[in-house]
């Protein structure tokens, strides 16, 4: 029987690859794994614990989306598990407008945690898989406290990233720069056990994932790319199956394991809003890091998402992510068909960060 490898043991084994490591980094991954176990328990009980549905105070997040109670619970859980450890200098959450400082009574550390505590939360009420996405940057600014400069770093500089998918089982998938590894929660012992070591995107894609309900707003290049994926345009390739759950972590996870491409394009529907719906710092950077580590690729339609210098904590970004050959083909269709969008989005992408 293969040895049972818990996520704690795996993180420790990974830490041995970095002799100079102080263990703070490994401890942080444990803290995230523990938060995930607690969120998993609440997610499973959501219907029973009366925390189902929209939050009482009708609070909205920075995107104007109604915050679901489980969103708030998950956000507070992750903060409380990390605010006192002395490993972080700041926390950025999709649910908070600004960077969250470490309370003055606690020590500060040398990492920044960026997270989407419960992505896809609108699916909670209909029992569709949802997820937590996290990314960890190293502190680069002077002084003790974390600043926006520490948070707004390109994805290439990430120390680690991962997600938890709360589905038919709860899985935590992470990379610290040495491959992508998946752990499945065994609720009977409360441990994440190694179930998918060194995940690689399969060479042959099976699926494409996009919300075709918005096709009329897509640019010509994205519409032609979609017809190409369906085998209607171009050399008549075998069509890919369409799978779209509407919960990013679930769609990404399936394509990571089975091969495929997820895309949420930018469009020209609203003047000045050409970057689409995905959040660069809380969704796209983490998943782009994982895709890259698993042999895939993530693009905003013109270049690698990991190369984007963020200019705003809540910056949106178009995202094409999955099998490299499919993502590169999407870039070609966009380059050849959408010059107006490319110009408008490039101007947005190259805006200078505001670190004040
Ligand atoms: P649409 C959920 O709100 C989310 O941020 C992602 O989880 C998901 O991939 C996307 O939005 C779905 O968006 O516009 O297709 O409903």
Task: Give an overview in words.
By secondary structure, the chain is of the alpha+beta class. It folds into two domains: 190 residues, Fructose-1,6-Bisphosphatase, Chain A, domain 1, CATH 3.30.540; 143 residues, D-Maltodextrin-Binding Protein, domain 2 (3-Layer(aba) Sandwich), CATH 3.40.190.80. Helices cover 31% and strands 19% of the residues. The protein has nine helices and 13 strands. An eight-stranded mixed sheet has the order 2-1-3-4-5-6-7-8, with helices on both faces. Helix 2 runs antiparallel to helix 3. The longest helix is centred in the first third of the chain and has 22 residues. The chain is globular and about 55 Å long. The termini are far apart. The mean pLDDT is 91. 6-O-phosphono-alpha-D-fructofuranose (P6P) binds next to helix 6.
Using the coordinates shown, work out and report the CATH topology of the largest domain. Answer: Fructose-1,6-Bisphosphatase, Chain A, domain 1
The helicity comes to 25-40%
Low-confidence stretches: none
Radius of gyration: 20 Å
The geometry reads as globular
Written as H for each helix and E for each strand, in order along the chain, the element string is HHHEEEEHEEEEEHEHEHEEHH
- Span of the ends, CA to CA: 56 Å
